[in-house]
Amino acid sequence: MPGYANDKKRTITRLRRVEGQVRAIEQMVESDTYCIDILTQIAASTSALKSVALTLLDDHMNHCVREAAEKGGRGGRREDGGGFRGHRPPGPLLAPPPRQPGLIRLGIAVHKQRV
């Protein structure tokens, strides 16, 4: 049973909300909405998706990894030895992007800051 099983309904609801936000962004582009308004919505959608990811990661750590540790095994492995994306090198899963002086990050867009 996956770690998110207890929150599955809530997770699906949040993902559907993000899907709706992305569709609204598409409509904004089609209707030639001001670019800053679109970027604001992209940032909100990105934040909402990151929130879902962090919730899933928390569930994974508190369920799958804990269960594996209690059994003395390795966490994060499927029974068939494979993974969704294959082997990942060790390191932080959600490392923040490097800071760039004089730049502001909004979702995926980067604009130079005017001083």
Strands, helices and their partners?
Layout: H1 8-30, H2 35-71, E1 103-106, E2 109-112
Antiparallel strand pairs: 1-2
Helix pairs in contact: 1-2
What string, H for helix and E for strand, traces the elements in order? HHEE
CA(first)-CA(last) distance: 53 Å
The secondary structure category is mainly alpha
Radius of gyration: 19 Å
**Widest β-sheet, arrangement of strands:** 1-2
The major β-sheet equals: 2 strands, antiparallel
Determine the fraction of residues in helical runs and give it as a percent range: 40-55%
What shape does the CA trace take? Answer: elongated
Question: What can you tell me about this protein's structure?
Answer:
By secondary structure, this protein is mostly helical. The protein has helices spanning 8-30, 35-71; strands at residues 103-106, 109-112. Helix 1 (8-30) packs antiparallel against helix 2 (35-71). Mean pLDDT is 77; it is low at 105-111.
